[in-house]
Amino acid sequence: MTPEPLVETRSVGRSFGRLEVLSGFDLKVEAGEVLGIIGPNGAGKSTLLAVLGGAIPPTTGTILLDGVDVTRRPSHWRARHGIATSYQVPRPFLGMSVLENLLVAATFAAGSRGHRAQAAAVDSLQRTNLERFANAEASSLRLLDRKRLEVARALASGPRLLLLDEIAGGLTEQEVPELVELVRSVAASGVTVIWIEHVVHALTAVATRLLCLSYGRVLAEGEPAAVLASPEVRRIYLGLDPEVAAPAGGPDA
Amino acid sequence: MSIVNAVIQGILLGGLYALFAAGLSLMFGVMRLVNLAHGAFAVLAAYGALLIVRTGALNPIAALLIIVPAMAVLGFVVQRFILQRTLGTSPLPALLVTFGLSIIIENTLLLTVTADQQRLNLGSFDTAAIALPGGIRIGAFPLAVFVFALVVLALLSLVLSRTQYGRLVRAVSDDPGTVQLNGADPKLIYGFAAAIAFGLVAVAGVASGVQTSFSPSSGSLFLIFAFEAVIIGGLGSLWGTMLGAVVLGIAQTVGAAIAPAQQILIGHLVFLVFLAFLPGGITRQKALR
């Protein structure tokens, strides 16, 4: 018998009014995977992450964590059970220091107390290169550092599954490799990652599997290079002529 | 009556107003909810204490041991099942619902306990006083209320700034959505904040019932004093609330020394001066401290 996947969706659908953003979506993610998700705007990527993180409930289908149905569990329950989300637009607690922001996550999501919470918060500060801002108010951080704090918060909450929602958006070309390195080290420490991104080369650098979504359905899935080379992905997502061979290194979006 | 005496009595009165205002300030700070039924709940607590005093032959202080936990539970329940549904981007539903609650409480009391003025009696402690030179007398009970208010606010302030739960409350006040990502349920935190606020207003209602008489319609005056203290002190700051309450108390007692019939009017005038020239209050803080 094969072990249960860490997270699984069974025919998950989500509609907003009459607009069906996700439909009949099946996904299995094994522990230790780094799953990259690409797709055109409006493909349902962010909706998928929101449904996995519990920010919005699915209209249909079930979500399983370790084989247990968690479809009706709210986001704070999921945060306590190892599902952490980093959003594209960070929303830190602006009136609190960076360290205090992380202490909230370490205390209430990871369930650490006292010195262990402090250690977890400091560890996530170091991993995201934010040590020098530890005592700065979160409101004083510029956008890039707020994004780092958003990832740090997710790390401080002790995740088993880390959901990353376009965290490379708005970064410069020099900053992306640093972020890729961070995700790689997080994955190496045993955290499963699902990463939505338009910066495709960032994904291909760490993803063990790539999935291309379009209109709430899977367009292509598998080994990253193979997915990027598939004719549908090249035509619908990358806007390239499927007859011409892919350039080396993969295109940037 | 000398001005010095009036100021001292005003400071002590400020302790009582601080107890009224702290709950209002806390609920606004944590969940951005303005509870217009705050005064009505204080009156409810005073009548609850009166009932316990009459049936159980307890004194009002002992009645607090029953009435404070009861009001805290009521606060939790009212928040979870009524007020939680009114929270959102618009403050209007909460204002309407709490205003409705205050009408329901006031009229239910009118029907059941009549409009008669009541008073809670502490016996000899009521009139006990410390005599100071210059003919100044400090009432033992007002002094006890003032010290209690100081201790409660210090404790609350310490919990908010130093403990992990205080940090969580500040986080909820900042962004309830992000709090969920951190594994905590804002609704539960709101419930506990309401429980603390209702416990405080119960103490305030009973203490006020010992110092002056009350009737089912006393709630609106309590509410106005609490509002004035919060605004004078500055929204969202607990120490500011204490300071605002003391300013209001002094304004009223000094006003009474100058024009005995116009005590409350002079309090309102001082409040209006603050609203006109220092609308952010004495502390002008944005975050909950």
TrEMBL record, chain A:
SMART domains: AAA. GO terms for cellular component: plasma membrane. SUPFAM superfamilies: P-loop containing nucleoside triphosphate hydrolases. InterPro entries: AAA+_ATPase, ABC_AA/LPS_Transport, ABC_transporter-like_ATP-bd, BCA_ABC_TP_C, P-loop_NTPase. GO terms for biological process: D-alanine transmembrane transport; L-alanine transport; L-isoleucine import across plasma membrane; L-valine import across plasma membrane. One of its GO terms (molecular function) is L-isoleucine transmembrane transporter activity. Keywords: ATP-binding, Nucleotide-binding, Transport. PANTHER family: AMINO ACID ABC TRANSPORTER ATP-BINDING PROTEIN, CONSERVED COMPONENT OF ABC TRANSPORTER FOR NATURAL AMINO ACIDS-RELATED. This is ABC transporter ATP-binding protein. Coiled coil: none annotated. The keyword Ligase does not apply. It comes from Naasia lichenicola. Residues 7-240 form the ABC transporter domain.
TrEMBL record, chain B:
Keywords: Amino-acid transport, Cell membrane, Membrane, Transmembrane, Transmembrane helix, Transport. One of its GO terms (biological process) is amino acid transport. GO terms for cellular component: plasma membrane. It is a multi-pass membrane protein. Its main location: membrane. The chain crosses the membrane at residues 6-29, 36-55, 61-82, 94-115, 135-160, 188-210, 222-251, 263-282. Belongs to the binding-protein-dependent transport system permease family. LivHM subfamily. This is Branched-chain amino acid ABC transporter permease. It comes from Naasia lichenicola. The lineage of its organism: Bacteria, Bacillati, Actinomycetota, Actinomycetes, Micrococcales.
